Amino acid sequence: MENVTIFDHPLIHHKMSILRDVNTSSKQFRELVEEISALMAYEALRDLPLKDVTVTTPIATSTFKMIAGKKLAIVPILRAGLGMVGGILSLVPSARVGHIGLYRDHETLEPHEYYCKLPEDIAKRQVILLDPMLATGGSASAAIRFIKERGCTSIKLMNIIAAPEGIARIQKDHPDIELYCGCVDEKLNENGYIVPGLGDAGDRIFGTK
Ligand code: PRP
Ligand code: URA
């Protein structure tokens, strides 16, 4: 699949299996979402540009590397995307954080916007859009559209679990987007839930059901 990275790392496989388990507590679920997000970000940020810097160690002065180029913005899709923020900020604490509030209508599965607050200079930033679940792809596609409408040209989408239908939707609506998926599951069920999936990510993170 073009522009899609699917992770095949033992740590991600292991943590994902515990995450999916119906008996995993909200506390452990939140911790796992953060840990998996950090592991995924480590790879998704591999192409960050570097610049030379001069550093004086206690022994000598020499040239080393630091991150250069576009600054980062991470944008969680509310609610469930919030669970991924801490994991990314643990690696890039200076990243700005925007928020897009969307909920999926249970009948139509169409996304509805209720909040959008993005960094003023988002057009100049590399955006990492976060949502643990990519099901029909409607929510992520709408969020990408909002970000593009603000002039942003560099967007990566990170999902912990994706359905093939969601990946196809993003590739159709936004072929320029790079996708990072912890894994790709089998299908969607008749209610638009990912099978086998992990259930409702927002409810499991926040303990609302
Ligand atoms: C979930 C999930 C995604 C969306 C995925 O959010 O976190 O945002 O559904 O479905 P889609 O790909 O078919 O659009 P939900 O609408 O349940 O809101 P919540 O995070 O507030 O629970
Ligand atoms: N949203 C979720 O939280 N889980 C799914 O399986 C699909 C959409």
For this entry, give a set of tags:
single chain; Rossmann fold; 9-stranded mixed β-sheet; 13 strands; 32% helix; binds 1-O-pyrophosphono-5-O-phosphono-alpha-D-ribofuranose
Task: Describe the overall structure.
By secondary structure, this protein is of the alpha/beta class. It has a single domain, classed as Rossmann fold. Helix content is 32%, strand content 31%. It has helices at 10-20, 26-44, 82-89, 138-149, 164-173, 201-206, and strands at 4-6, 50-56, 61-67, 72-78, 96-97, 99-104, 111-117, 126-130, 133-134, 155-162, 178-184, 187-188, 194-195. The strands form 3 sheets. Strands 1, 4, 5, 6, 7, 8, 9, 10 and 11 form a 9-stranded mixed beta sheet that branches. A two-stranded antiparallel sheet has the order 2-3. Helix 1 (10-20) packs antiparallel against helix 2 (26-44). The model has no long low-confidence stretch (mean pLDDT 96). The structure holds 1-O-pyrophosphono-5-O-phosphono-alpha-D-ribofuranose (PRP) and uracil. 1-O-pyrophosphono-5-O-phosphono-alpha-D-ribofuranose binds at residues 77-80, 102-104, 109, 111, 131, 133-140, 166, 192, 200-202. Uracil (URA) binds next to helix 6.
Helix/strand layout:
Elements: E1 4-6, H1 10-20, H2 26-44, E2 50-56, E3 61-67, E4 72-78, H3 82-89, E5 96-97, E6 99-104, E7 111-117, E8 126-130, E9 133-134, H4 138-149, E10 155-162, H5 164-173, E11 178-184, E12 187-188, E13 194-195, H6 201-206
Parallel strand pairs: 1-11, 4-5, 4-6, 4-8, 8-10, 9-10, 10-11
Antiparallel strand pairs: 2-3, 6-7, 12-13
Helix pairs in contact: 1-2, 2-3
The protein binds 1-O-pyrophosphono-5-O-phosphono-alpha-D-ribofuranose (PRP) and uracil.
